[in-house]
Design brief:
The protein is an alpha/beta fold and about 350 residues long. It is built from eight helices and 13 strands. Helix 2 crosses helix 5. Bound molecules: guanosine-5'-triphosphate (GTP) and zinc ion.
């Protein structure tokens, strides 16, 4: 089963992981490895002895996880090392009239990434709100968010576009890249052992970028549909890929809509650090920034310092996050009620049986 061998440092292994491995592994003969791909029932793990397929238990590992594998005829993941970073999205969206959707369960898209590349095309249209949504996930993940404006060769006014993007990506690096002519790629290259995840809509050019970084075609890319400029979802699964020049990337299929998880408040606060700072200057601590006197947020919109679009986006994402948190709370309450019912029943029963 073994193919090429992977020296662990090239996969991102360091002293910290070695210590975590010792702490979480009972058997010295277990093998350390990094999860490259997860399918139903089995995952692909890169190890010093090569690539292997391993089963897993009740808790499925995630792409990017470091795991301890019991080798032998039927390899199996015995431990998942605690994640340093995790990109988490909310549940898959279900339509709802309010525009809010999703369940409150969390889905880990990628684990142990150092950089989250938020990929948004320069053309046909650049969606700043989508960048902000992904930035919230990225800040919350613990990885460094970097916004990549792809297909820079197609931009009508690149400097103008980058200005607009910068105003939506406060505190994050923004780079323009063109996989077509190689422009800007050097800023995106990763040092050996560093891991990046690519997040962005279908057709944004994620796979093309991965291939350009890898220096060889590792991902299938798709022609964008002529009609609406949308992609055709050529990437169908998430996979961790080792680049030739060192560094690792996790390509993700373009997701139609990434919902926020129920635990994204900090990520949102960082994404909208400028608005939060303004809000701190409002006269009333509980200012809703609707029509209150002394509202610093509305004053900034009035003076042109804060784009109205950004305020609207902040509100929309805040509302979604609050809604998701409410659902998570409701689920937790239901769970606790259920537990108490069982405990009470047990108490009644043991009370009856008392002599
Ligand atoms: N002009 C131009 N076109 C590009 C560039 N990068 C990608 N494209 C084109 O954009 C289309 C979509 O690229 P993909 O790399 O397949 O997009 P993706 O984000 O991986 O899409 P999914 O796999 O569906 O998530 C392809 O036709 C590419 O040739 C670029 O830098 N410039
Ligand atoms: Zn206010």
């Amino acid at each position: 089963m073994a193919s090429s061998h992977f020296p662990l440092p090239e996969l991102g292994w360091d002293g910290g992981w070695a210590a975590a491995f010792t702490e979480h592994t009972e058997h010295t003969e277990h093998l350390a490895g990094r999860v490259a791909r997860v399918d139903k029932g089995a995952c692909t793990v890169l190890t010093e002895q090569g690539e292997l397929r391993a089963g897993y238990g009740a808790e499925p590992p995630c792409v990017g996880d470091w795991v301890a594998v019991r080798t032998g005829p039927v390899p199996r993941v015995r431990a998942i090392l605690p994640r340093r970073t995790a990109v988490v999205r909310g549940g898959v969206g279900r339509d709802s009239r309010s525009g809010l959707s999703g369940d409150s369960s969390r889905h880990v898209l990628a684990a142990n990434v150092d950089v989250a590349y938020i990929v948004e095309p320069a053309a046909p249209d650049t969606d700043l709100g989508r960048i902000e949504r992904l930035l919230a996930l990225a800040w919350e993940s613990g990885a460094e968010p970097v916004v990549l404006i792809t297909k820079a060769d197609l931009a009508a006014d690149l400097p103008g576009l980058l200005d607009a993007v910068a105003s939506a990506a406060v505190g994050a690096r923004v780079h323009a890249v063109s996989a077509l002519d190689g422009d800007g790629l050097d800023a995106v290259r990763l040092r050996p052992g560093r891991t990046a995840v690519l997040l962005g809509p279908s057709g944004a050019g994620k796979s093309t970028l991965v291939n350009a970084l890898a220096g060889r075609p590792v991902m299938r890319t798709g022609e964008v549909r002529a009609g609406d400029g949308r992609g055709r979802h050529t990437t169908t699964h998430r996979e961790l890929l080792l680049l030739d020049g060192g560094g690792l990337v996790i390509d993700t299929p373009g997701l139609r809509r990434i919902g926020l998880s129920d635990d994204v408040a900090e990520g949102l606060a960082q994404t909208f650090a400028d608005v939060e700072e303004l809000a701190a200057g409002c006269r009333f601590a509980d200012c809703a920034h609707e029509s209150e006197p002394g509202c610093a947020v509305l004053a900034a919109v009035e003076s042109g310092d804060l784009p109205p679009r950004r305020l609207a986006s902040w509100r929309r994402l805040q509302r979604e996050a609050a809604w998701m948190a409410g659902r998570a709370d409701a689920r937790l309450r239901a769970e606790q009620t259920r537990k108490w019912k069982i405990i009470h029943r047990e108490m009644r029963r043991s009370g009856r049986n008392r002599p």
